[in-house]
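Thread amino acids onto this structure.
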């Protein structure tokens, strides 16, 4: 009886060791898009990338990535405008009020929400870009870049 158990255990372990994984070979995994791993650049547009953690529904992850992308885009534009406002105030020797910056920030956020378009999505099924599987990326852009 012990011999039969050892044989069955050996067959089970052998089968488990040979089962492999459902991961394709590294050579068959497509590379991440350039906009995921580098600076997103589109001629005549300002762009940003947003991400989302894995979600049960793919559409939920895409929606979250798009929302985060718009937030990143608004932050980028806000930073550029605040910098210009500070440079201008310094040049003139003036102070500007934080209320002006707050109003500008609200206007920028509204503008980005209305004008930014999601141009592409990418699901990192194998953790190539972030070393974490199933992260969703969204590329959004709006007119106005150099």
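Threaded sequence (146 positions):
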């Amino acid at each position: 009886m012990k011999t039969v158990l050892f044989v069955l255990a050996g067959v089970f372990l052998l089968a488990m060791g040979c089962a492999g994984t459902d991961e394709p070979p590294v050579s068959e995994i497509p590379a991440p898009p350039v906009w995921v791993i580098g600076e997103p650049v589109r001629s005549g547009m300002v762009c940003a990338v947003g991400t989302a953690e894995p979600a049960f529904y793919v559409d939920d992850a895409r929606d979250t990535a798009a929302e985060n992308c718009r937030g990143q885009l608004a932050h980028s534009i806000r930073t550029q405008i605040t910098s210009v406002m500070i440079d201008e105030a310094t040049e003139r020797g003036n102070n500007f009020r934080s209320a002006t910056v707050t109003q500008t920030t609200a206007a920028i956020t509204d503008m980005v929400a209305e004008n930014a378009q999601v141009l592409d999505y990418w699901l990192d099924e194998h953790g190539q870009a972030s070393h974490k599987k199933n992260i969703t990326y969204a590329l959004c852009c709006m007119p106005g870049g150099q």
